[in-house]
Structures are given as structure tokens and as C-alpha cells.
Specification:
Blueprint: E1 2-5, H1 6-15, H2 27-37, H3 43-57, H4 59-68, H5 81-86, H6 93-113, E2 118-120, E3 125-131, E4 134-138, H7 147-160, E5 164-168, H8 179-188, E6 192-194, H9 198-207, E7 217-219, H10 224-233, E8 238-239, E9 247-252, H11 258-269, E10 276-281, H12 284-298, H13 304-314, E11 316-319, H14 323-333, E12 337-341, E13 357-360, H15 366-371, E14 397-403, H16 407-423, H17 427-442
Parallel strand pairs: 1-11, 4-5, 4-7, 5-6, 7-8, 9-10, 9-12, 10-11, 12-13
Antiparallel strand pairs: 2-3, 3-14
Helix pairs in contact: 1-14, 3-4, 3-9, 3-10, 6-7, 6-8, 7-8, 9-10, 11-12, 11-13, 16-17
Length: about 450
Amino acid sequence: MRRLHGAEEAEGFFTRRSWALDDPLPDQIRDSVKRIFGEDLTALQVAARIIADVRRDGDRAILRHSGEIDGVELEFIEVPADEMSAAASELPPEILCSLEFAAGRIEAFQKSACPAGWTDPDESYGEVVTPVARAGIYVPAGTAPLASTVLMTAIPARVAGVSEVILCTPASGGRLPDPSILAAASIAGVDRIFKIGGAQAIAAMALGTETVPAVDIVCGPGNVFTTAAKKLLYGEVGIDGIFGPTETLVIADADANPEFCAADLIAQAEHDPMARPVLVTTSREMADQVETALDERLTALDRRAIAQAALDDNGAIVLVETVEEAVRLANSMAPEHLCLAVADPHRYVPLIKSAGGIFVGEYSAEVLGDYIAGPSHVMPTSGTARFASALSVRNFLRFTPVVAINADAFMDIGKHAIELAKLEGLGGHAAAADIRLKKLVGE
């Protein structure tokens, strides 16, 4: 991992753009794109073509792209309901127990986070809170089934009161998705599952097809093509966020456990060669110890090549003078995960202004956040924590202001509306208030 010294040197690294949807694709992916589409395209251009196809041809486009892109010849798009309900019986009891345990904590957290409507009769206003009618969840497929992502996305929707939750996830070889995905969907209360991946899945949920119903919001992580599709479809459908590679920043002082720090960095690095694992420490000795621990742990890691690439290309160890300086750097990076491996970590929480999630103390391991801590692990990346939040029950709710002004209140405030309407030259606005005020004065 590269070594950086102080805020000035680290600032450029922290704020540099790590990816963009209109960048040239990696060579291997570019070759596939050329083979399928006949020319060199960016992720945004690929997504735009797929969206146009789904908009025009519906299910036929889904089947065509699933065959050409995913190599999956689908006989049917939707997973039969009985297959979903029966999946739990195929899992080892300990796996099913852990899924149910995680679901319980996720549900409890989201219920605590769920906002309620309110009213202030004295001021004659308030808000009503209403869930969207239908939510679409996307869960990518990779080298391992992401059953946890099903729980982390579908349960907040259910707690919000969404009437129907659908799930799109790829299935290799035309087979059903992994039993753990189906079981997690059953536990989380998913209504329907479709064996669709990539940009075509996002387009299907956003636009609707003969088989897939159009949803009000699409949520969940994905690859560069699903992310591009979400960006292009935003406005036609609600989107939880535009996600880039995962990132973790660990702040450690001289008394932190270097083995813990190294383990947390590798846990992020093994996700993706583009992942960004960063250690910011006040101790040169800690930096050396963590680097040694990283080398030792990598030797036994199944996904060593992926983790090594992330550490070498995107990772960094930054030396700073104080924990406060480390927090300032963290705020400039706005990382997805911010871990505080320092003495008295609660002292620094109020200083953190930009992070997807804050993990306080060495036993609040980020890996717990990935699975069973309670908050959703779908969090803002690539600096978007400056303005975005982790996925939660709030993503599936709408907040509608209610104004209920009576005659007495209108007598007090109507004249101010008239003055402001005149200021803006909107005579019709002024008259709409004035006619009411004259009626009340006349009475």
C-alpha cells in the first residue's frame, strides 16, 4: 500500500475521482461489449441501448439480452412461488438460523428509524407519511450468493409498509437463483422474484414489461451497467443512489489492534479490485504493524488476487499528527464505512460530518454491518455520503405536507401572502388571498 504523509498529501488522493460511468471499460469487458453490440461503447451507452430495447420490446428484449450478455437462455422469467417458499428446506439449519437472526435485527433497527406523520394544530400544518406502492430490489450475482443484500433491501421496504416488493437477480444457466437468495426473500417478505440481471433488470423494473410490473423505486447495488441504467432512468423511477466501488477508512491510534485493522481492510479489499481500503493512523509503528499483518493475512486468503489489486491500486496508509486531523481527512473523503479504532471513540462521533456508516470501537467491526448489525449495508460510496444516506425505511416513504388553516389563522397570515405576491408581481396570487381576507373582514 502507498504511504501518504499529512493532510496536504492525502487530500488529493482522498478526493480524486476513482471511476466514472463514461470512462473506457476494462479491456476484457470492452471485448465482450464489442462482441455483443458490434462497437466500442461506454457503460452509459450500453445501458442506454438496453433501456431503449426494453422500452420497445419488453419481455422479448429481456430474453434476448439475458442470452447475449449473461449466456442464460430463459424459459420463463419469474420464479414460481412454490420454489421460493420451499427454498428454506434446502439450507443447513445454522444458515437459516443466521438469516432469521439478521432479519430480526434489521427489522428492529428499521422500525426504530421509521418516521411518523405529525400535525401542529396551533400552526395549522403538518405532514402525512405514505409508503410507495411497489418497490423493486436488485441483488447482483457473483462468486457467492448475496442473501444478506436481500434482507438489507427488502426488509426496510416492508417496514415502510410497501404493498408489493419484487426482486430481480440473475440465475446462471437458466436455473433458479441460489436457495439462500430464495430463502432470504421469503424471510424478508418479497412477493415476486424474476431471474433477470444487469441493466435489463433495472429497465424492466423501472419501465415494466408484460411480465415484470413497473415499480415506484429501484434499490440495491450492482455492477457498472446496472449503475449506469439507474442513472439514466432516474426521474422515471425513484433510485436509491448511484453506487461505485466499496470503500472503508479505518482511523487507528497507537493503541489499536493492528490485526483487527488489517482484517477490516482486507474484508473490503476482497470485494472488488476497485475497492478502496484506507488506514489513517497517528502512529508510524501502527502503520508498519498493519502492513505486516496485511501481508500475512493475504497469504491465506482465497480471494487474494482481488484483495491484492485493491490494496495496491486504491489502498493507502496515511500518517497524521492527531485523531482530529484524521477525522477531517475522513470528512473530505466521505467514505462508505468509517471505523474508529481509537481510545474513547465516542468522543469523535460528533466531529464526523460525512460517512455512509460509522463503526465505533474495535468490536463494531464493519463486517457486522455487512450482515447483522441492523442498519442496511447498502450505503453511499465514491464521496456521495456528502449528500446521501444509507438505504433505510425512509427511502420507501413519501412526506407530504398538509396545510389546514382556518379562518382565524387566515386573518393573521393572509395579509403577508398578499404583500409577497405583490412583490413578485403576481396579481392573481394576491387576489386569491385578498378575496378571502375581504370576506372575513366583511363578516
